[in-house]
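Field notebook, page 146. I keep forgetting to write these up properly, so this time I am using the form the group agreed on. The chain and the ligand, heme C, are recorded exactly as supplied. Prediction of the bound pose follows.
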Amino acid sequence: MAHVNSRTLAAAGVFVLSVSAFAMGSRPAGDEEAISKRIAPVSRVEMAAATGAAAAGSRSGEQIYKAVCGACHEAGVANAPKLGDKAAWAPRIALGLDGLMKSAIAGKNAMPPRGASDANDAELARAIVYMANKSGASFKEPAAKK
Ligand code: HEC
């Protein structure tokens, strides 16, 4: 697996957003400065989301999911099991939270280690619980580690 880290993901996100902002907006007579002014706030929001607005270690499963994991798990990119797809998740849920933690930490096929995030173990576990519980599991969120 080529190196994919949260920075490249963030960069990709900004790129996609920039392109779509460009494509969607009514183009102001080819004024590049106006365009970059219009897309700047969007890029900043995306960067904040990707790097996690809250301090590392204290983010919720939902925050981690929305900032990172959803990039693949929302639409099922590269055969990632989609959020809410019970059939895709059932055999994975059967591995238990510990089993899923192992593959999420190490990475699995197209799934990069830690989903290419900077999530620590507690955050990663919360993100897995968030995803799995929206997809048929009833995992308990592990006690918050400081
Ligand atoms: C670059 C795309 C990508 C990102 C980002 C990503 N995943 Fe995945 N994930 C995958 C793919 C693809 C699979 C399926 C792997 C397989 O079974 O072949 C997967 C599978 C999983 C599984 C199931 C593992 C198993 O043993 O079956 C878990 C749990 C998981 N991801 C958690 C996460 C979490 C948590 C994040 C965010 C921190 C995340 N993923 C981010 C692509 C991604």
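OBSERVATIONS:
- The two ends are 32 Å apart (CA to CA).
- Residues 25 and 129 are 38 Å apart (CA to CA).
FOLLOW-UP: compare against the apo run.
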